[in-house]
Every structure is written in C-alpha cells, then in structure tokens.
C-alpha cells in the first residue's frame, strides 16, 4: 500500500502540491488525470523519491520513501518518467536488462535473463533487441522504456504518461498488459493518462488533480461526471454509457 | 543483417588487437640506441637497454593511453556529454596546479605524496566543473565542453603565472606537455596505479552505465547516485593526477577514443571499457612511435603529436555528428 | 550630445595615457619620451583594433560572448609564422619584407575566417558547435606550430619563441606604423557603417527583412575582423580574451548595443585596460611581462561568467 499523508510542496513560494492525502491499496490500476501543470508528475516523483519531500510523509508498504535505502525501494517500486530522454548508445536488450539492476547489481543470473526475454516478448521488441536505442522511432523507444520498467518486476509501477508516442495498437496493448499483471499478479500501477477513455476502460480508480489538489477520487463511474470533468479540465464534455462504462466525448 | 554487423564488429576488434601488438613491437625496437631482435637474444647490454628503457616506455605509453581513454569515458558518463574529458574539464590543469603547489611548499615530499595532493586538487577542480556543467542548459550540448576548455585554460593561466613568478616554468612544461622520453625503470612504476583505477572502473562498470542514464533512472533503479558519482570522480581525478605527474598532460585521447568506440560498440561500459582501453593504448603508442620517427634521432613529445592527430580526429567527429543530426 | 559615461571613459583613458608617458621620467627625457611615444602608439593601436574587431565579430555572429581569437584566428597567425620560418629558415624569415609577410598572413587569415564561418553565413549552424570547432582548430594550429618548431633548429626555434607569446615590450616601429594606418582606416569604415551595424546585430533574418544585403555585409565585416586581428597579433602576439573582456565591460558600462556608442566605448575601454595595465605593471606590480597572463586570466573569467549568466535566462 502507498500512503501519502499531508504532502505539500512549493518551488520558491509557489505552491505546487497542497496538502495531498491519498491511500493507494495494493493491486489494481489507479489513473491520475488532470490538466498540464496539475502536479501529477511532481506527485509521482515524490513517491519515487526522485525529489525530497518538503512536508508530509509517503510510505510504500509502510517504508518511508525518504529514509529507506534506495536499493530496497527499487525492488518494490519502479518509475517511468515523462520524456526521460536517454542519450546513451545502448541496445534495446541492454537497456531493458538494466531494469534488473536492482536485483543483481551488475551480475545477472538466469532468472534475470529470462525476465528480460519475457519483457522483450511482451512488448514485441525481439526484432529490435540488438538495435541501438538512438536508432529507434519515438514510439519504439517508449516501448523499450516501458519494457525496462516492467522488467524491474516490482509490486508498484509508477508510469508518467506512458502512452506518449504510442500508436493505438500499442497503447491498447500496454493498457491490457497492465490489466493482466494487476489481475493475475496483484501488482499495482499508478499511471498518468491524458486519454480519459483509457482511464475509464482500464483503471479501477481515477484520481483527478488540478492546481496541486485532488478534485475527485473514486471509481471511473463516480469520478467521470460532467460536473467533475468541468471542474478539472475547465470545459463541459458529454458522457455516454457503453456497456456500463462511461465514454467521454472529450474531443467535442 | 545482424550477422554482417557482428562479423564487422569482430573484424574491427581483431584489427584493433593487431594494431596494438604491432605498435608494441615497433615501440620496443625504435629508438636512439641500436637494438634489434637478434641482439636482444645475444647481447647483454642490449637486454639491459630493453629492460631499463624500452619496456618501461612501452608499458607507460600503453598504460597512459588506456587509462586516459577510460577516464574520458567515465567523465562522459558522469557529465552525460560526449565532448568532455579530463584535459577539457580542468581536471588535468588542476592536477598540474596541485603538483606545482606541492613542489613550492613541500619540495622534499615524495612523488607519491605529490601525486596524492595533485589528485585531491584534481578532484576539487573537477567537482567545480561538474557543479557548473549541470547548471548549463542540457539542450545545448556544445556549451559544456566550451565551458570546460576555457575553465581549464583559466586554471592553466594560474599555473603559468605562478610558475613564472617562481621560476619553475621548465617544470611546468614537463607537467603540461606530456612525453615519454623521461620514462625509465624506477621512474614510472606509479603509473600502475592507473591500471588499478581502470580495474575499479571495470568492476563498477554497470553502475557507471546506469549513472549515464541520468539521475532519475539511476534513483529509480536503486543506485546510490551521489556515491557512484563521487566514485567516478575519484577514478577520473586519480588517473589524471598520475598521468600528469609522471608523463604530463596529453590532450584529446580521452575525447576521441571513447567516441570512436561508442560508434561501433555502444555505451554499455561493461562491454566497452576493455576496448576503449586497448584503443587508447594503441593511439598513444602510435603517437609516441610517430614522435620518435618524425625527426629521428630526436624526439617530439607525444602531447605535441597527439595535439595534431587528436584535434583532426575530434574535428572529424564533430563534423560528422553535426551533419548526421 | 555625448553620453556622460563616454566622456568619463575618455577622461580615464587620457589619464592612463598621461600617466604612462610621464610616470618615473628620469635621465634622457627626450629619448625616453620618444621611446614611450612609439610604445604608446602601438598599445593604443592594439587596444583599438582588438576592441573593434571583437565588437564587429559579435555583431556579425549576433552573439555577445564570441571573440575572434576563440575561433583560432590568432593561433593561425602563429602557425603561419612558424611555417614561414620552417620553409625559409631563420635567415630567410628575418630577411623577409615586413609588408609582404604581413600581406600574406592577412590573406591566410581572411581565408580561414571565410572557411570557418561560411556555414554560419549560409544557414546558421549551431553557434556552440561552431565555437567548439573554432577552439579545436585553435588547438590544432597551436599543436602544429609546436610540432613544426620541434622540427626546427635551435636558432630558428628562438625566433618562433619570440613571436608566440603576447609581448608588450619589444615593438617594431615599421609594423607599428603599418598597423596604425590599417586600424585607423578600419575604425573609420566602422564608424561610417555604424547604423548598418546596428541592423546587422539584430540577426540574419531581421537584417535581411530590413533590406540589408546580409551575406555581402557579413563577409566584408569578417574580412575586416581578420585584418584587424592580424594587425594586433603581428604587433604583440596572441591575446585570446582581451577583446572579450573589453567588449563586455564596455557593453555593461554603456548599457546599449548601439554601435555609435559601443564602438568608441570599447576602444576607450581597451586603451584604459591596456595602457593603464601596462603603467601599473611597469611601476607597481612585478615585471611588465606578466600583463599578458593577467589579462588572459581576467578575460577567461569574464568569458566563463558571460557563459553562465547568459545561459541562465
Ligand atoms: N523544477 C521546477 N521548478 C519550478 N517549477 C516547476 C518545476 N517542475 C515543475 N514545476 C511546476 O510545477 C507544476 C506541476 O508540474 P508537473 O507536476 O510536471 O505537472 P503535470 O501535472 O503536468 O505533470 C507546474 O506548474 C510546473 O510549472
Ligand atoms: Mg507531467
């Protein structure tokens, strides 16, 4: 379980996050939605100890993130950053292989190698495995990064806009993979999405943020109302129901 | 397709090994004193020359080249910029300043003590460079080496100024202009320290590669980012100080070798460090041999030859990169 | 209506000149005055030519942290000298006609400036990449000079040594006069073109939009820069960051980029720093030979500061 308690953050007096308290149970997919600058990425990087906490507390499986050894956390929690460009010339297999680093510290065993192969297969990267990542297309590179994060094999996955650059086929496939590991292996994914319908279809829970605050929190059916969406995104959108799932006509 | 590529890789690796072996042989048999394979077997005096001068010089050149290239490689991973190396980041100049200070303040100190102090100053100078380099906008990759070059130049000016005031200019020339002609048995053994540093680098190669993926990825993978950064800095500084103290500054090695190797083998340090080392050793040996041949029987310092060869290689690198991008 | 700050700067420059001429006069006054007069002329000429060439260079490249010597121009000059000694021998070099030699040097430097900056003139290559290439070229020429000088015999080597450091003490009368004429002409040209220069400083697209024949103007200006650098390098040797220091100080002080004020301010600032620095180092601190190193140091620091401050915004 990830517990976020009274977390606030500001850069040079400008508040970025204001008193956020959230509890994210084990298992399932939580979608984080909100307009640009809402503080989603900041919240994720605080959970992943990429920046220091200013006030409040964050616990992952009751381990405080700011005082637990980084290596221990890396076996429980993996993060994919938004637009984390990698300039190194590594092959896709090498890059994905570094996802196992927290487990073997540079001396991989057979299990690690099998995990890498499984991740390559899951994201259809076998054909690209020996290519250097700087020769890939944006979407292929994004898939390699996602595969690396998956490969880390952690209970918690934090994914910041993982669908960036992906085509519809691979976006759907990524969401289905997340669903599979959540259902079959009780993994937990916290994922920042801009496509609200992906969230509606695949997430168990949606947390909507704006201006550093949580505006709405709950199942897709309870969060995705016209009033909530207007409060978060600033315009009214129509909502239809298809087979019991809300479909937001966000583009109209 | 993969087959052609991997076989091409093997050809390149084989060629690098062959070139290295050839240059080692050349380096042993070229020089002011007469020395041929025939004599090596029959003439004790020639054998003496071999063990006292030729072998140490060859070993020193190979060690220096390998270590400087690896230092450049590590530096590039730490700064995440392909255009930096110890002599363009103030590291080598700081080391020279360190040994200058030691020579002025404690002239009686042993070479090892002087080297230690030079390493500490190198560490300090490089840390300042790193702190500033991280603040420069990452979107402009050429700004960092530019900054480093001028920063190194400013420290170099301080060294020259102090040397001038204290009439130590000819020493400064020795430290700043690398050459191997003074390398004989008993005067270079400290250089084996660079081999130790290179071995440590290989030991932590995976950590350094993770580091080169950036701070966020490193922390996400549970690497102790600061500690690895510091370790990398220590390795780079120690290699720089050792080479500056014993052979002097040699420019461009750490810049061009890792870049050329990266083209073919990529940036996974576990796999590339040995090849970077071998290629660096080959390049420095080659330049040293060239320096001995150009005006036989006089010698031209390896740093001077490398200044020309390395600058041309570096310009080529920049040009192809610019036209690719 | 002259700017007060400009007048202030002129006053300081004048004070520096007077101090330089009169401090510590002893012995054969007429002879010393004549000697100092020549030296003063050389210093002023160098200061003015470097200041102007730096400002021009910054204007053409629309970048305020550049200086021609970063681009390897003075290293090329040095290499030319060494190559000449190498080809002609020490005697041949010494017996060369100053004017001819100077002419050849200038042509070479203009050619290099064109080759180096052509990509910039055509389609604006990445400025920092170009800079880095310039620095590397400078290193290449320096290494080539060193390599050639190692191939020389000791006598010829000594000749090369004397031209390879900035030296404000031994000056040649013929070069000084030649340099003064060239610098004066260049300064006049720049002054007449000061309003066009303002437009060019806005950058290539804007300048073209405002009807300036940019390519032609830029090529001409760069040639002028090469000539000015050649003049000052021929007189005192390479001074890498002096121009940058002076131009940056002038711009800070005047708070404008209008060439009508910037050009004279930079020239005056150059005189203040060079003549004043020479006076101080002769009568105060240490030996006179250290001025070059001190200026390098201060100029290098100024460059680093500009780089960091400039990239902050
Ligand atoms: N390094 C930084 N310095 C100052 N402000 C920042 C910094 N990083 C992010 N911000 C600000 O914090 C707010 C939240 O950013 P972020 O968490 O990235 O939003 P998003 O929800 O789009 O991911 C934005 O207003 C952004 O401008
Ligand atoms: Mg974001």
Describe the structure.
Chain A is globular and about 50 Å long. Chain A has 2 domains: 2-76 and 155-249, P-loop containing nucleotide triphosphate hydrolases (Rossmann fold, 3-Layer(aba) Sandwich), CATH 3.40.50.300; 86-153, no CATH class. In chain A, helix 3 packs parallel to helix 6 and helix 5 (110-122) runs antiparallel to helix 6 (138-151). The model of chain A has no long low-confidence stretch (mean pLDDT 91). In chain A, strands 6-7-8-3-9-10 form a 6-stranded mixed β-sheet, with helices on both faces. A 4-stranded antiparallel β-sheet of chain A has the order 2-1-4-5, with helices on one face. Chain A has 252 residues and is α/β, with parallel strands linked by helices. Helices cover 35% and strands 28% of the residues of chain A. Chain B is an all-alpha fold and 325 residues long. Chain B has a single domain (65-324), classed as ABC transporter involved in vitamin B12 uptake, BtuC. Chain B has helices at 2-29, 37-42, 44-79, 91-105, 111-133, 143-165, 169-176, 192-203, 205-212, 215-220, 225-246, 253-265, 269-294, 302-324. Chain B starts with a helix and ends with a helix. The relative contact order of chain B is 0.16. Chain C is mainly alpha-helical and 313 residues long. Chain C has one domain: ABC transporter involved in vitamin B12 uptake, BtuC (Orthogonal Bundle), CATH 1.10.3470. Chain C has 13 helices and no strands. Chain C is globular. The chains are: A alpha/beta (252), B mainly alpha (325), C mainly alpha (313). Chains B and C meet through helix 6 and helix 14 of B and helix 5 and helix 13 of C. The complex binds adenosine-5'-diphosphate and magnesium ion.
């Amino acid at each position: 379980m990830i517990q976020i308690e009274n977390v606030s953050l500001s850069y040079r007096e400008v508040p970025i996050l204001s008193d956020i308290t959230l509890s994210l149970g084990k298992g399932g997919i939580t979608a984080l939605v909100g307009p640009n600058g809402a503080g989603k990425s900041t919240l994720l990087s605080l959970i992943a100890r990429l920046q220091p906490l200013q006030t409040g507390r964050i616990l992952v499986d009751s381990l405080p993130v700011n005082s637990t050894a980084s290596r221990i956390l890396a076996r429980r929690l993996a993060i994919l950053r938004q637009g984390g460009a990698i300039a190194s010339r590594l092959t896709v297999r090498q890059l994905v292989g570094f996802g196992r680093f927290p487990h073997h510290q540079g001396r991989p065993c057979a299990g690690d190698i099998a995990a890498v192969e499984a991740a390559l297969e899951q994201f259809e990267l076998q054909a690209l495995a020996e290519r250097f990542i700087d020769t890939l297309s944006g979407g292929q590179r994004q898939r390699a990064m996602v595969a690396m994060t998956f490969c880390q094999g952690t209970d918690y996955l934090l994914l910041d806009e993982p669908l960036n650059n992906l085509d519809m086929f691979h976006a759907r496939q990524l969401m289905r993979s997340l669903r599979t590991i959540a259902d079959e292996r009780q993994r937990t994914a916290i994922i920042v999405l801009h496509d609200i319908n992906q969230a509606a279809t695949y997430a168990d829970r949606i947390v909507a943020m704006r201006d550093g605050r949580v505006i709405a929190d709950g199942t897709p059916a309870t969060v995705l109302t016209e009033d909530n969406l207007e409060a978060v995104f600033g315009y009214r959108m129509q909502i239809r129901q298809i087979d019991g799932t809300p479909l937001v006509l966000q583009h109209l | 397709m993969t087959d052609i590529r991997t076989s091409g890789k093997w050809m390149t690796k084989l060629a690098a090994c062959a070139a290295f072996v050839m240059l080692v042989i050349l380096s042993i048999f070229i020089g002011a004193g007469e020395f041929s394979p025939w004599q090596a077997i029959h003439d004790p005096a020639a054998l003496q020359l071999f063990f006292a001068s030729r072998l140490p010089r060859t070993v020193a050149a190979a060690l220096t080249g390998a270590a400087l290239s690896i230092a450049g490689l590590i530096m590039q991973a730490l700064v995440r910029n392909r255009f930096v190396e110890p002599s363009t980041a103030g590291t080598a100049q700081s080391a020279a300043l360190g040994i200058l200070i030691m020579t002025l303040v404690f002239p009686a100190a042993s070479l090892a003590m002087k080297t230690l102090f030079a390493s500490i100053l190198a560490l300090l100078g490089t840390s300042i460079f790193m702190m500033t380099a991280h603040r420069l906008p990452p979107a402009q990759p050429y700004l960092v080496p530019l900054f480093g070059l001028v920063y190194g130049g400013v420290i170099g000016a301080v060294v020259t100024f102090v040397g001038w005031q204290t009439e130590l200019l000819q020493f400064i020339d020795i430290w700043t202009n690398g050459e191997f002609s003074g390398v004989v048995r008993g005067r270079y053994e400290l250089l084996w320290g660079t081999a130790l540093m290179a071995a440590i680098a290989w030991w932590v190669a995976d950590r350094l590669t993770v580091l080169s993926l950036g701070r966020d990825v490193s922390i996400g993978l549970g690497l102790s980012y600061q500690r690895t950064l510091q370790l990398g800095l220590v390795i780079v500084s120690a290699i720089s100080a050792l080479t500056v103290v014993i052979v002097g500054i040699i420019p461009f090695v750490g810049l061009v070798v890792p870049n050329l190797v990266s083209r073919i083998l990529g940036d996974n340090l576990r796999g590339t460090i040995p090849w970077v080392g071998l290629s660096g050793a080959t390049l420095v040996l080659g330049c040293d041999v060239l320096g001995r041949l150009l005006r036989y029987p006089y010698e031209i310092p390896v740093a001077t030859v490398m200044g020309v060869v390395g600058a041309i290689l570096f310009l080529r690198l920049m040009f192809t990169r610019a036209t690719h991008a | 209506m002259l700017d007060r700050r400009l007048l202030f700067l002129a006053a300081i420059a004048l004070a520096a000149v007077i101090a330089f001429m009169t401090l510590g006069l002893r012995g054969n006054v007429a002879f010393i005055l004549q000697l100092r007069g020549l030296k003063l002329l050389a210093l002023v000429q160098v200061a003015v030519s470097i200041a102007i060439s730096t400002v021009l260079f910054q204007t053409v490249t629309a970048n305020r942290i550049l200086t021609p010597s970063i681009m390897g121009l003075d290293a090329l000059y040095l290499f030319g000298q060494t190559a000449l000694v190498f080809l002609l021998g020490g005697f041949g070099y010494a017996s060369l006609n100053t004017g001819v030699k100077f002419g050849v040097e200038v042509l070479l430097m203009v050619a290099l400036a064109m080759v180096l900056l052509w990509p910039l003139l055509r389609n604006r290559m990445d400025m920092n990449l170009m800079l880095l290439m310039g620095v590397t070229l400078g290193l290449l020429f320096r290494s080539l000079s060193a390599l050639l000088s190692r191939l020389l015999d000791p006598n010829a080597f000594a000749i090369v040594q004397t031209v390879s450091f900035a030296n404000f003490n031994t000056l040649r009368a013929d070069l000084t006069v030649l340099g003064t004429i060239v610098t004066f002409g260049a300064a006049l040209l720049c002054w007449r073109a000061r309003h066009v220069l303002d437009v060019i400083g806005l950058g290539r697209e804007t300048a073209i939009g405002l009807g300036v024949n940019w390519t032609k103007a830029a090529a001409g200006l760069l040639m002028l820069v090469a000539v000015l650098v050649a003049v000052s390098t021929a007189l005192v040797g390479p001074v890498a960051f002096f121009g940058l220091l002076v131009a940056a100080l002038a711009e800070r002080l005047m708070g404008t980029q209008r060439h009508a004020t910037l050009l004279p301010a930079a020239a005056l600032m150059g005189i203040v720093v060079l003549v004043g620095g020479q006076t101080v180092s002769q009568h105060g601190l240490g030996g006179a030979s250290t001025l070059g190193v001190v200026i390098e140091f201060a100029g290098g620091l100024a460059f680093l500061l500009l780089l960091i401050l400039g990239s902050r915004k």
